[in-house]
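Everyone, describe these structure tokens:
***
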Amino acid sequence: DDVVLGSKTSIFLSTADSCEPVRLGAGSNLSDNVVVLPGTTLGKNAVVGSNGFSPPGRYFPEGSLWFGCRNCEPLLLEKGVEDDGGLERGKQIAKMRESGGPVDHLVTL
């Protein structure tokens, strides 16, 4: 679905502590030198720019734009088409993952 993966991008599905899928929505973009850890979800047309980082379980709302990182947290440039509810949904997804509950019904790809 037109997902773009830049050069030297690394997607990890497991760590010493967990094994979770990474979900990439239609039209999403992981630019050069991006590191993605388990449980990450990119919404439709979300972009993680060059030298970006996705902590475990991170949700990037639809149409949002992120670039680089500071203190292991991605830096938000544009919120995208979702309102603050998208960030709240991300927190809800992270909480469900921590408890071992299903999250597929919470994510629109």
Helices lie at 84-98. Residues 4-106 form a domain with the UDP N-Acetylglucosamine Acyltransferase; domain 1 fold (CATH 2.160.10.10). The chain has a mean pLDDT of 86. The chain has one domain: 4-106.
